[in-house]
Specification:
The structure is a homotetramer. The first copy, chain A, has about 350 residues and is of the alpha+beta class. Chain A is built from seven helices and 18 strands. In chain A, strand 2 and strand 3 form a beta hairpin. In chain A, helix 1 packs antiparallel against helix 7. The longest helix of chain A is centred in the C-terminal third of the chain and has 28 residues. Chains in contact: A-B, A-C, A-D, B-C, B-D, C-D.
């Protein structure tokens, strides 16, 4: 909806800063009677947790989630679900005692221009730490759409694209990479970036299978428009595609249409291709829903950058703190969570209008 | 908010089908005291109007807008503004007397799966005719943000990209193309597609200059997330980029950061680049806001396509009616309108919270 | 949601001024497949239509509604339903050529303080003419909740309360009065007020039977809170009660609780009373939902009233135009419509969350 | 907005059950730069805190609020403000080990009908304990409208109405009663009810002075409609009035209109009366905003009541736990908070649209 809430019927609100005492989310509108405990959420958080390989930030956060409301006798009650994670390893001293110069590429300057005041420790509210709560809320959303399987992975890192796809590979490397050969190459790329104090961008893809035809809505509550907002709301994301995405702009109408034929097995028709990415006219078609997002390289780099300070004077931005050389890696579980959250909302919206 | 309404404080709701008696929009939350008459809206509609060159559909709609409420003595009153356009050239007979087979790549199948019933004449509610009302509402939005200049154009058509940029060229060719040489090439491309009954995709870009730093908001009301939803909600759009977009994923952190320095003229700082596309952390930076969207080639092509009918039987989709060989062309004014609508909403939201 | 839209999932937006060319509503989120034509709406409008007896305003509006979208082959399609009524008998000349002094008790002054500009002809946007569109939208809402019977009536007029209740009487007198004796007395009261150029207040009650237990929601989407907002949003309403209302504050806990026992017929339990008015904790109990609203006497009276003009100078407000001596009478169909609209929304919201 | 969130621009979401580990609120959309610490909130909570006199429940909750986000260096940052209160004295054993029979007059039955499952300990989510978070959020809202003074009090308890009004008295008795004589009488009434295990209703009034003319909006975002929703959303409330309320229905138009004259001191005009309660056409007039709500007597009484259990069998409801003999008393700070929350939202909404 607005500001720090996302969703229409199935909604969540997040709060908390990178270096405050805790971060949290309130999930509202959740159907009652779903089995839910911390054990349903923690594994998803663990996938996103920092410090699990040398390729992500060395900040050590256990990210242990607690459920403070909305569950009774192991089942959701329909009341709002409050989820909290304590910040454990928030070394404020990494950030000095006063606001550092604006870090170009970060939100520092924009926040100050908007609010005239901000929590500058570790990015404050703009820190990607907030995305932990998306993953937590997304774990609840998954319970709302058990018919859907959601799988995210990186298809490109530092401009190096995968050549093959083996779903089993995704969990075997620290990059959520479905191509073993690419994963091996990416080790070298990320190591080099990390050692140089540089950073790399990435492209993540997420496929949701099992979405029935009919979720979504014209004209401004389109499933793909909501997925676009969800994807673009993730820190460092600069582009979103559905299905063939920008590639569709280079196809002819003959190439791009997804022809249909009756299924030999009855039931839903067979589609001969999926350029649409499972969404037509803002409504799911029953094909896999395919979303792709582009992460920029983080601006937290060792090379000093020309900038200004809050007084408007010339200054240099020098990165301290512990950072991810490629934020896109840990962005994969976040993308999955956002897709789950959008789908849960649209499932409920669909049955609201259509029974 | 949802379904057929867009925006939070400055909102608009559209209604109407391609072949119904009329289409309309209700613009709500508009500030009072703005000079507004049909003359402020009609020129923008005329830019989108079909039938103006051989490169767009030959449907002849004058698209004459009427204001039915919300304006008194030439000024907006703060009450909802009702805008209506009568459908004049809606040849229902082009569409036969019963629902044709589902047209692959169109929303026919998805709508039927959702609603079990749809107005199939000319795409009904899913028709791009709805975008006329976005342009009308966008004309009102422009009055809310007079400090902003919004300019859209095509940067790519049928996979052929512009080489140069001359803003003055945009109005001189039927493609909103800022490169005369490319425009000349595109004539050939579109003519060929039109004659072959085929269709082409395109990429449009829109730049908003004059947006002050501070519009937008973390975390789910981000300016770029709203622009992404706005862009993706336009018919036939499959991708949205802000600033460097997917290209950012191929840059290093050193290349991508937009360094700042004090302006020699005082005031807002000087940015040395604009990979961010004018948005950081969901908030405008004062740089030009840059949005890019990809249009797929329309599925309305002469070549029959394998499909099914509503009974699930194998069928062929054969396009009748009058169609655009490249919907991206007339999409340019629509993109501009959506950008204006998002910016107007965020201007008002910003002053709500920050005074 | 806000300003000129009401509802969350089943929503409607109204537009138009008393003396503009037309008024209208857009109903969004309506389930598909409902049989709908103007004939489903017009009878409800006719109940509210002015000029039907000497006890209401003599403005002669046929209030003929047209459906401009959202219906195909006689069925709702799930797309927004645009409803329009042309203003036929809008005698602007009754209102002179410039803004008259602020009429105390009307919204004139408040509107000018807010907007600095307003359509002062006949109350403009603040005119109760807007309520025609509530009745039209409410007629659509009734189709969404066919299991519910909604009946409104006046229980008090000019301080004179009914003594008996006979549902069949409601349609037999011009006051929607369920008590023939009271109706006879009210004739005298209203005639006297009309002749004196005075006005009277009234209390209307609306009972919705057939609402199943379970609609509504804690804590801020409560069914009774939405009914309160709906009721208070009607022009001239100054109070809302659910069930025993203010009277409950004078009961003891023993008197007020609605004891339950198993029904001898099985199924839903039997309640021994209904002080709750069918809502507990914001959720329907299965008992009849009972809402009561108080209409103030309109401030459009013949006696000149001390006031100021827009320049702040002392002035006299003198009522011209044609007015209802008791706006509460024609408020009955409006209350019914608002109750239908709230219930339709909550039915859909309930199945969104709870299936 | 919906379910557990209230407000449009200035919004808050509450979570938590009576006997869970904690309750909380997230306040979103708060302007930046406001001085805020726990000390700004705690005093308001203390006014509502149970166990302060023999006239309220003996549950002993310190209700110590913690701010977990949204404040940095003592100032609000514009980010969401997370407020948490731990539940300390939640004696679950008072409630046994399994769901007791439905308590008539409480939300037990309605919740089960909606959700099929509920936290029945102490009312769970339906407990008035949730209102502590309204008071906490309301304390933040007060900072947003420093120009407004909000004062609530009881005007009636157990059917016994105040005769005089002395603002200084309000803080001198445990009933927020502005009439010392009435307060003395009420001691007897409440003592008697408490000893009898009975309960009493009450009517609270809240006056907000300093609200400038122009807040609010037609037609569905009316200030009074939002106040009505806010009031009716408070536990045990069954009626809401603005200004003269139901009494207005018994006045003539001549009596009810609030005549105006130029102020001898310049500036805003002088009103000769305030039957409107400071709101006309949904917009504030500059006069004091007057809201009145009716609390029913709580159904938690010692006398066993005929009811059914979850299996549908006949049963008796016997109240255990510690309860307020008159929930209206502690409802006064809650009403004040809700009025503050509505006004803060409307102040921001007003400047959004009107600058």
């Amino acid at each position: 909806m607005s500001f720090n809430t996302f969703g229409r019927v199935f909604r969540f609100t997040t709060w908390g800063e990178s270096h405050g005492p805790a971060i949290g989310a309130v999930v509202d509108g959740c159907p009652p009677g779903l089995g839910l405990s911390e054990d349903d959420i923690q594994p998803w958080l663990d996938r996103r947790r920092p410090g699990q390989s040398r390729f992500t930030t060395q900040r050590r956060e256990p990210d242990a989630v607690r459920i403070l409301s909305g569950v009774f006798e192991g089942l959701t009650t329909g009341a709002p679900i409050s989820l909290v994670i304590d910040n454990v390893d928030a070394r404020t001293k990494d950030y000095g005692e006063s606001a550092p110069p604006y870090r170009p590429g970060h939100a520092d300057y924009a926040y100050d221009m908007k609010y005239g005041h901000r929590d500058w420790r570790g990015g404050g509210r703009a820190s990607a730490r907030e995305t932990a709560m998306r993953v937590a809320a997304g774990a609840v959303a998954r319970l709302v759409v058990p018919e859907v399987t959601i799988r995210g992975y990186l298809v490109e890192l530092g401009g190096d694209r995968i050549d093959g796809f083996d779903a089993d590979e995704i969990g075997r490397n620290p990059f959520f990479c479905p191509d073993a050969a690419a994963a091996a190459r990416w080790e070298g790329l990320v190591d080099a970036a990390r050692k140089a104090g540089s950073s790399l961008g990435a492209v993540a893809e997420c496929v949701a299978t099992g979405v029935p035809a009919g979720w979504g809505a014209p004209v401004y509550g389109k499933l793909d428009a909501d997925l676009a907002a969800a994807g673009m709301s993730i820190n460092a994301v600069k582009g979103v595609e559905i299905g063939a995405g920008f590639g569709a702009a280079r196809l002819s109408g003959e190439e791009n249409g997804d022809a249909m034929r009756p299924s030999p097995h009855g039931g839903a028709p067979e589609f001969l291709s999926n350029h649409a990415g499972g969404v037509a006219g803002g409504i799911s078609t029953g094909q896999p829903v395919v979303v792709r997002i582009a992460f920029k390289p983080t601006s937290s780099i060792l090379t000093p950058v020309e900038t200004i300070d809050a007084a408007g004077n010339a200054a240099e931005a020098v990165t301290k703190g512990r950072h991810d050389p490629c934020v896109g890696i840990r962005g994969v579980p976040v993308l999955e969570a956002m897709v789950a959250l959008v789908l849960a909302d649209h499932k409920l919206l669909h049955r609201a209008q259509c029974g």
